[in-house]
Amino acid sequence: MDDAPARTPVAERAAATRAALVELAAELFADRGYMQTSIRDVARRAEVTTGAIYGHFRNKADLLVAAVSKRIGEELESQSLGAETEPYHVDTLTRLARDVRRRRQLRALLVEGAAAAHTDQETREQLRDEQLSHLKAWQAGYEADRARLGIDDEVDLQAAVVFTWAVEVGLGVLEAVGIEPKSTDGWANVWNRFARSLQLPPDDGKRRRRRR
């Protein structure tokens, strides 16, 4: 039996409003640019007052972080952390790679946020904290599944997680100038090879250097 308290109609409307604002902001930030989109622009498109937006979000950076987190949750974590999936499995990473085009807006949001972070300290700090929360959760998942998945003991899992996310974000930079994988199957094949490489021991040269 679910002991969680039922939401009141007012709370449900507030949650629906917040979700709609996040979705709209994600579209505007990705399409028009984060720096080029103001809270007033979001309010105008949503047909609400700016005060209504500030009732849900402290500032524009807070809205960006909510949009990024929502996209990551829907397009990555719900596809790999659910009860019916096998998290961090080679097949899971390969399947997510095949869905690469679905995450174009997420990557655009990350690129916009990264650009803004160079000049806006609040955006930098909030986006950094949001990204670290996901990266740490993914690393913990790999560590918990390391033995079952056969990940080599010498693999630095923090480095592996940062590497995989750097590839995703880096693709967003390339997409911004019109470069993307020609084939989703080819992209997934490369990701499959990377995922399987985590099970391999280091090469002999590395072993010899460590013995010295």
DSSP strand (E) fraction?
under 5%
User: What is the number of beta strands?
Assistant: 0
Poorly predicted segments = none
CATH topology heading of the domain at 59-203: Tetracycline Repressor, domain 2
Q: What is the CATH C level class of the domain at 59-203, in words?
A: Mainly Alpha
Helix content: over 70%
Span between termini: 60 Å
Radius of gyration: 20 Å
- State the helix count: 10
Tell me the structural class.
mainly alpha
* SSE order: HHHHHHHHHH
Q: What average pLDDT do the residues reach?
A: 89
Let me know the largest β-sheet: none
Which architecture of the domain at 59-203 does the CATH hierarchy give at level 2? Orthogonal Bundle
- Approximate shape: elongated
Note the topology.
Blueprint: H1 9-32, H2 39-46, H3 50-54, H4 60-80, H5 90-98, H6 104-117, H7 121-149, H8 157-176, H9 184-197, H10 204-211
Model description:
This protein has 212 residues and is mainly α. The protein has a domain at 59-203: Tetracycline Repressor, domain 2. Helix content is 72%, strand content 0%. The protein contains 10 helices and no strands. It has helices at residues 9-32, 39-46, 50-54, 60-80, 90-98, 104-117, 121-149, 157-176, 184-197, 204-211. Helix 1 packs across helix 4 (60-80), helix 6 packs across helix 7 and helix 6 (104-117) crosses helix 8. The mean pLDDT is 89.
Structure, briefly:
With 212 residues, the chain is mainly α.
Can you give keywords for this protein?
212 residues; mainly alpha; Tetracycline Repressor, domain 2; 10 helices; elongated
